[in-house]
Amino acid sequence: MGSMSDKISGKVNEVAGKAKQAVGKATDDKRMRAEGAAQETKGKVQSAVGKAKDKVKGAVDRM
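The line above is the sequence of CsbD-like domain-containing protein; the predicted structure tokens follow.
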């Protein structure tokens, strides 16, 4: 995956995870809340990977 697709996928997972957590909280579904938290974390990691790829590319381009 490229850095842009990592960042987009990450943001999508963050938003979906937050939505799942909200639904889980509203319905008192602990499993849904846990799944949402995991998905949100996955999204944050994906976004960080995308940002790291950008930094590496920037450093290589400056060489």
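Note on the example: The chain has one domain: 1-59. The chain has a mean pLDDT of 95.
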